[in-house]
């Protein structure tokens, strides 16, 4: 079968115009990858307007292909190439002279051929040299990210060391966090409990982690004043973490006997079932202070309005933009966005957390300043701004 096809193709080549130069194909390892791709480049063998398309064919090194240079029948061409161990890796438009062959094995060498389709002919390039993909452990196209990461780590270490040595690191006043002691004291004076809701999401949410951190500081204040603390939970994992945090906080202030496991409890996973249960708890227990910290959704206004109706002082904090207007309207204090994340640092003043917070603040200031500078530079000297953009990605 193969011999018959070869003779047929050989007879067809006599009707082709002579002196057609094969395409020059070049194969290189793709830079900045994990060793799973090769880049194929070529020079067109004909004027671009006379080329219909290109096909890139790949074979494992060691396969002996049929040595045929030119075809007039695309189906016979594909049959012979496939039979000889070649696989079509990709198809390009006539004006494309580059192809990246991905999903390769880094332990295998590959050879390539290019098929150029023109009216009434197919021109096949010579076989490329065998090449194996190589893995690069450093992506040089992301050097700017590497430099920024190193500078940020250096800033964190610097500020942590300064905080450990007792340096005064400024953090702007956050009214909602300043009011925590007042809110806990109010509940103590009135002889009513404190209600703390750590959001509706699981422990893998940053807002929930921040809410649990603030819960630890609130529990310490409640332990110092001897005030009951109620913590309803929607997620059982969050409930277990909250129980441990409240227990340790009470123990840290010398009041381990104040911890009651039934005060840190699981309610239900249903969103509005949880909201209804917490609203009912507020109406029955009449807590003097309500904390809503973490990620909230459509139930935020139900909780905040119910607490407002009971006359409680309310402090909320969330990173959910859509719920901020409801908390701002119905609560006495609201932590907006990243103020929630900074809450545990603001209250505890731990050197490690404080240093990381200051480094983040300086990094944000540098990024904002750089963005403004580039915009102004685009207005004044756009060519210089374009050079900077290309240099830093």
Polypeptide structure, described:
The protein is α/β, with parallel strands linked by helices. It has helices at residues 2-12, 74-83, 143-164, 175-178, 180-190, 206-225, 236-252, 271-285, 300-309, 324-330, 338-341, 343-348, 351-380, 382-392; strands at 24-29, 38-43, 53-60, 70-71, 87-93, 98-101, 110-118, 121-124, 194-197, 229-233, 264-266, 289-293, 313-318, 333-336. It folds into 2 domains: 2-124, Sandwich (Immunoglobulin-like), CATH 2.60.40.10; 172-341, 3-Layer(aba) Sandwich (Rossmann fold), CATH 3.40.50. The longest helix has 30 residues, at 351-380. It contains 14 helices and 14 strands. Helix 1 (2-12) crosses helix 2 (74-83) and helix 13 packs across helix 14 (382-392). Helices cover 45% and strands 19% of the residues. Strand 9 (194-197), helix 6 and strand 10 (229-233) form a beta-alpha-beta unit.
| Major β-sheet annotation | 6 strands, parallel
Q: What structural class results from the helix and strand content?
A: alpha/beta
Round the Cα radius of gyration to an integer and report it: 34 Å
What is the overall shape? Answer: elongated
Q: What is the average of the pLDDT values?
A: 85
The sequence of SSEs as H and E is HEEEEHEEEEHHHEHEHEHEHEHEHHHH
Q: Indicate the CATH architecture of the largest domain.
A: 3-Layer(aba) Sandwich
What is the C-level CATH assignment of the largest domain?
Alpha Beta
The tally of structural domains comes to 2
* Uncertain stretches of 5 or more adjacent residues: 1-19
The end-to-end distance, rounded to whole angstroms, is 55 Å
**Percent range for helical residues?**
40-55%
| Number of strand elements | 14
Fraction in beta strands: 15-25%
Q: How many H/I helices?
A: 14
CATH topology of the largest domain: Rossmann fold
Strands in their spatial order, largest beta sheet: 11-10-9-12-13-14
């Amino acid at each position: 079968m193969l011999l018959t096809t070869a003779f047929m193709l050989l007879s067809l080549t006599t009707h082709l115009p002579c002196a057609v130069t094969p395409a020059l194909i070049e194969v290189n390892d793709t830079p900045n990858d994990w060793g799973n791709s090769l880049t194929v480049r070529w020079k067109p063998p004909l004027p671009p307007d006379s080329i219909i398309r290109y096909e890139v064919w790949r074979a494992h090194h060691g396969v002996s292909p049929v040595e045929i240079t030119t075809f007039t029948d695309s189906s016979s061409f594909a049959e012979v190439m496939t039979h000889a161990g070649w696989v079509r890796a990709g198809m390009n438009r006539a004006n494309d002279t580059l192809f990246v062959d991905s999903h390769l094995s880094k332990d295998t060498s590959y050879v390539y051929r290019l098929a150029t389709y023109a009216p009434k002919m197919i021109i096949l390039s010579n076989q490329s040299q065998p090449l194996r993909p190589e893995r690069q452990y450093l992506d040089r196209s992301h050097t700017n990210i590497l430099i920024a990461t190193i500078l940020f780590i250096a800033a964190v270490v610097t500020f942590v060391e300064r905080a450990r040595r007792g340096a005064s690191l400024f953090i702007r006043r956050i009214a909602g966090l300043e009011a925590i002691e007042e809110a806990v004291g109010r509940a103590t004076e009135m002889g009513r409990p404190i209600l703390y809701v750590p959001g509706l999401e699981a422990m893998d949410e940053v807002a929930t982690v921040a809410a649990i951190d603030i819960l630890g500081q609130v529990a310490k204040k409640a332990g110092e004043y001897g005030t009951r603390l109620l913590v309803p939970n929607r997620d059982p994992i969050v409930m277990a973490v909250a129980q441990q945090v409240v227990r340790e906080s009470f123990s840290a202030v010398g009041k381990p006997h104040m911890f009651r496991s039934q005060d840190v409890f699981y309610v239900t996973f249903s969103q509005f079932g949880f909201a209804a249960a917490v609203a009912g708890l507020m109406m029955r227990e009449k807590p003097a202070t309500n904390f809503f910290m973490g990620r909230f959704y459509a139930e935020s206004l139900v909780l905040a309005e119910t607490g407002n109706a009971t006359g409680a002082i309310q402090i909320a904090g969330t990173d959910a933009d859509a719920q901020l207007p409801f908390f701002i309207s119905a609560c006495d204090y609201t932590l907006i966005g990243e103020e929630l994340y900074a809450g545990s640092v603001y209250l505890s003043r731990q050197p490690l957390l404080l240093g990381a917070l200051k480094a983040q603040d300086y990094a944000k200031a540098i990024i904002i300043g750089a963005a403004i500078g580039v915009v102004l530079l685009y207005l004044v000297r756009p060519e210089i701004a374009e050079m900077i953009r290309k240099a830093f990605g």
